[in-house]
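We treat protein structure as text, and this decision shapes the records that our systems exchange. We quote a single record here, exactly as it is kept in our systems:
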Amino acid sequence: MTESNGAPRGAGGGSMPDWEKRFRAPRVSLPDWAEDAPDRSLFVSNATGTYELYAWDRTTGEQRRATDRPNGTTDGVLSPDGEWIWWFSDKDGDEFGVWLRQPFAGGEDVPAVDGLEASYPAGLAIGRDGSTAVVGRSTDEDGTTIHVVRGGGAPQEIYRHRESAGVGDLSHDGTLIAIEHTEHGDAMHSALRVVRPDGTTVAELDDTKGGSQELGLEVLGFAPVDGDTRLLVGHQRRGRWEPMVWDVASGEETDLALGLPGDVSAEWYPDGSALLVAHSFEARSDLWRYEFGSGAQTHVETPPGTVSGATARPDGSVEYLWSSAAEPSVVRSTSGGVVLDPPGLKAPVSVPVEDVWVEGPGGRIHALVQKPAGATGPLPTVFEVHGGPTWHDSDSFAAGPAAWVDHGYAVVRVNYRGSTGYGREWTDALKHRVGLIELEDVSAVREWAVSSGLADPDRLVLAGGSWGGYLTLLGVGTQPDVWAVGLAAVPVADYVTAYHDEMEALKALDRTLFGGTPEEVPDRFTASSPLTYVDEVKAPVYISAGVNDPRCPIRQIDNYVDRLVARGATHEVYRYDAGHGSLVVEERIKQVRLELDFAARHLS
């Protein structure tokens, strides 16, 4: 066994390579803005080397770092009046903590809610008066609870259930609260309940009942008008995510039927007369404006690639965070120009992504391929498997894959069954045979990559983080003769122990995926656990893990590593003081260096 120290050979000296520049270059998120003070914004940036929250006064142009913690901060919300910044304070990435707040102009951080103990967050909605809040909490002991806090008074509990739930939204006038819940036991498909601030029920909407299909709902937001009881809701009734309007007072549902082929989300324009529609289809996305009065749909022009977030401003303009696989992310506006352009080092461009479609056991699989400019195969190839599992790789900028391309590798990213953006059936297909189904799709794409001449069959790397890390360890165990190297970041390694140690919301998800607990369906957990196959692993394995990770806890990783040690298997382990990934730029660079070095040593 080798415990990595973050100092691989060849890391020092010389000018900074492009791959490091991409990590070090200042980046910003899409700015949030206060509903009643739109010139006050909040965004996340890594400008100081750690991802932190920044307050931005658009009137004066002043940008102020609002948080400053060794392991970074990304969870923050502006109160609608623009007076307060609420931010979630955990301990070194363990995601268990309390909400603090500070004045927008700067000042002391104080507890935002007195009387609520530390928990995992389960949603937050702040009233327009700045002193009313709806706070969702999750703990192993209580499940999910939701509290209403008014004017600094004692929090009043309005909701409690063992299954996962969360705060959806608070109406514009503060009289209605939308809750997403999974009381029916299916953590992948939520139902909706609207309640008054005293907890009494106003309306229910549940698409999980009365049919053979498992359909989910999500809260997209109340209309931004006092007294308006319309709630924008996401539904799956036509096999993909689409928006509709639900009047919670009358019960009337207005189907928007936008006719777009992919998953569709939406948010209100500030005056409530239109919707800003975000459409995601086959790894790319675009924006539309939908007019309520006429039903007209107008395309909002954005460059080809991926819009990672968008918001409509009071003047009717749209700000959006855009990137492509080749071009780094930037916050643009439809009014013209770049909204936020942080000074300093600029991230070098990478290479464009190529689309590949491969026939697989569950249907056509979409893969995204990048390779060094002008390179011809067969190449050492990294199969970079995304996390989630309900997520997808897209034509968007990612510093990690670009680093592999810089070092002469082809990179293949597979949107396996379980991925979003290809319809509900594709996303929901991974139940019961968890992990194994996804790896069938990865295998089909791997066979294409080798037979097409792209990939060198003797130099195939399976890599990923979180769920991708889990699939990596499961892959090198169930397919031991295929992979030359495995690189697993913050993985599930021992699924039974992971279930017992993870945060409560993930327990609920696992019960949905497997159809029960490890005690109720032991064979399914055994078949899907990397620990089951650890003695079959032949490839050298590199594992990185956050010691405070509540999602893929450290004890179950240690169990897996102990088995590698017992049989003298080639592996290295790197543990770092953070949670499910690091918000510190230098730490991210260190981890990529270690992976690059490990692969180079074991593929030569």
Remarks:
- The longest strand covers residues 455-465.
